[in-house]
Amino acid sequence: MIISLILGGAALIILIAVFMRSERGRAESAAQMTQFGQLAEKLSSAQSGLEGRMQQSQSQVNERLEMISKRLGDGLSQQTEKTGETLKVLHERLAVIDTAQKNLTDLSQQVVGLQDILSNKQARGNFGEIQLNDLVSAALPPDAYQTQCTLSNGKRIDCLLKLPNPPGSISIDAKFPLDSYSNMVNAEDKTTKVNAGRQFSADVLKHVKDIQEKYILPGETAESALMFLPSEAVYAELHANFRNVIEESFRRRVWIVSPTTLMATLNTVRAVLKDARMREQAGVIQTEVQKMMEDVGRLDGRVDKLQSHFDLVNKDLREIRISADKVTKRGDKIETVQLGDDTPAEDLPPPAANVERFPGAR
User: Are 61 and 53 in contact (CB under 8 A)?
Assistant: First the structure.
């Protein structure tokens, strides 16, 4: 708008100059100049009002820009703080994830190591023995069991629970057939799975028979033994799908136990041992009570004897007291008798009939 006004003013000036130079329109130019002057004044006032409005608009625009800048600054500050908090929480979660990832890595390595252990028969046997030893040592006192014990037939048992008769010492074997179980679990078709299951059943039954023949000795061990399976999965598979194996083990008095059921059995054994020791202690206490009653009887007899001695002493004291009283009375009578050389015979007191010859005698 300002540029338009300037261009308009310039055009007016040019027109004025043209009209002034023109000789024919001098008179008219004067009138037009007057009009142009008035027009210029109006343009000047309009320009002044326009400048005021421009300044007011500029100030309003500046205020709005400042408000917008402040809002943007506050918003950016809040957003920066929220972003920082979010990044902090994200960093903490990433740290937790890193820790969990590390734990998973360690667990994977342990699982791989466990698989390596269980794949080797000798290492698998050692693993079962170690687990059995940990369970037994945690539940029973050291004198209640013995590991790697050799029986009278020369066979070495993994653990022997020393219980009083009945039932007697109980043998525990920690070996278990895992190869056939792994083949059964990893079978890809039904036929292979059925064959692997039959082999697994045959292996377990053979192991049960070996335990019966080697570790159940009449007169030396209990009439039953324990077959320890350090795998809850194998134990559950036997009870779920191989009832014939479990029933055969019952007939042969070989009880198949897992870590959980073995712990329950060991707690029962501990209760039995505690009861047996309490009975032993009760016998000792009864013997001691009998001896104490004998001592009490002897003490009672001695008290009776001492009481009889006290009674005799009291009797002697009473008799001594009576004699002393008599002597005192006789002395008093003697003092009351006043004898002199000039006392006539008729004045003498008559002799008492009850006076003894010897006053001191009883």
Answer: no
Tell me the pLDDT tens digit for each residue of 223-262.
Answer: 899 999 888 888 888 888 888 889 999 999 999 998 889 8
DSSP helix/strand/coil, 173: strand
In a domain, 10, yes or no: no
In this structure, what CATH number is given to the domain that contains residue 186? Answer: 3.40.1350
* 195 φ/ψ angles, rounded to the nearest 5 degrees: -65, -40
If DSSP states are collapsed to H, E and C, what string results for 113-150?
Answer: HHHHHHHCHHHHHHHHHHHHHHHHHHHCCHHHEEEEEE
Q: Which domain holds residue 200?
A: 120-278
Query: Looking at the 3D structure of the chain, how many domains does it have?
Result: 1
Name the token pair of 212. Answer: 């019966």
* 76-to-70, 122, 195, 309 alpha-carbon distances in Å: 10, 68, 72, 114
- What is the spatial distance between Cα 313 and Cα 294, in angstroms, rounded to a whole number? 29
- Cα separation of 68 and 47, whole Å? 31
The whole model's pTM is what? 0.46
Q: How far is CA 254 from CA 72, 137, 216, 268, 329, in A?
A: 82, 22, 9, 17, 102
C-alpha pair distances (Å), 118 with each of 82, 88, 113, 196, 281: 53, 44, 9, 18, 46
